[in-house]
Amino acid sequence: MTTAPVADQLRLLDVQALDTRLAQLAHARRTHPAHERATELAARLADLEAALVTSRTAVSDLRREVAKAEADVEQVRSRAARDQARLASAAVSAKDAQALSHEVEALARRQADLEEVELEAMERLEAHESALADVTAARDEVLAQQQESAGVLERALAEIDAEVAQVTAEREQRADGLDAGLVALYDRLRGQLGGLGAAPLRGRRCEGCRLDLNPSDVAKIQASAPEQVVRCEECGRILVRGAEARAS
User: Fold this and answer.
1) Where are the CATH 1.10.287.1490 domain residues in the chain?
2) ∠ CA 228-230-234 to the nearest 5 degrees?
3) What are 154-167's pLDDT values in tens digits?
């Protein structure tokens, strides 16, 4: 049967309170809202980066298409200019002049068709360049939000870590010199019972499981020596007596 000085049992409640606070801080660190915000922004950024790649590819393809259309128009325009120059000279026969005139007319129609293709490609390029600018601006905005959110999270975690260091130091101080057997039992129970290994007994109630003990169990506890470490019959936690008197 485990025994420990009454003072050590009472101090164990202080250790438990500090362990509970450390668990709360660990939970706060894991579940801080800034984590969710960071995940949300990362997902949005990934979508925008993918859209950016698609948009840049479309713009690059359209720029090549426009360049080809411009080259096609220039080629037809140059040939038409040469034909016109030949027609203006006296070095062609009437038969050649007639053929050149027909070719010039055909080239004019061809040039009009190609210029229409060029204009349509330029309009599509302009629309895609505008879309690319919008996606780029949206990406840059999310990057700025991501940087701001990272700063918020960093500051929040720094505050939590500072409190963790303070509570840890206090916990070490409160646990220093406690009965080794009591501490070993407490640590084992804390690992088994969700972090709560010791609780005060207030009247008939175990503050660990929040259940009232039956009268026979209470009588047995009251009859136990003060140094005897008693356990809750319901949850198995260490029950610390005298906490009420200590608090008052």
Assistant:
1) 6-27+179-247
2) 170
3) 999 999 999 999 99
